[in-house]
Amino acid sequence: MPEQPPQSFANHTRLDPPFHYFVLPVFFFTLLLTIWKLIKNFGFESAWMVVVSVAAVAAIIKIRNYSLRQQDRIIRLEERLRLAALLPESSRGKIPMLSESQLIALRFASDAEVPALVEKTVAGNLKAVEIKKAIVNWRPDYWRI
Fold first, then answer.
1. What is the pTM of this model?
2. Where residue 140 falls among pLDDT bands split at 50, 70, 90?
3. Which residues are CB-neighbours of 99 under 8 A, at least 6 positions away?
């Protein structure tokens, strides 16, 4: 794997070029073309092609979301296991109080920062973006897209 730049709050979001720059534009452009064709040549076949194009766009978005949800579930499990290992016994009872988005955000926190950040998150009910901004030593996640 090529050398990755250090990850931080400013650069942790990623795009998947084949998906974001090819698949999505092709399907959206096709949808626009089918609508244009329906306007120019109204008929059952043109109307049906618009329905098929809408279904195709919905399908690729749903398929993408299914894989992201699966990644979220895995991250949630990994972080619960990580927190159980890193938190002192007195704080382990707070793990179930963390929401899925909070657990996902905590994955970027270094092991040393986790106990204090969990306390701060539970006490202030921090949102994911607030958790990410509070992280000093970023633990990169290069696999999530």
1. 0.75
2. confident
3. none
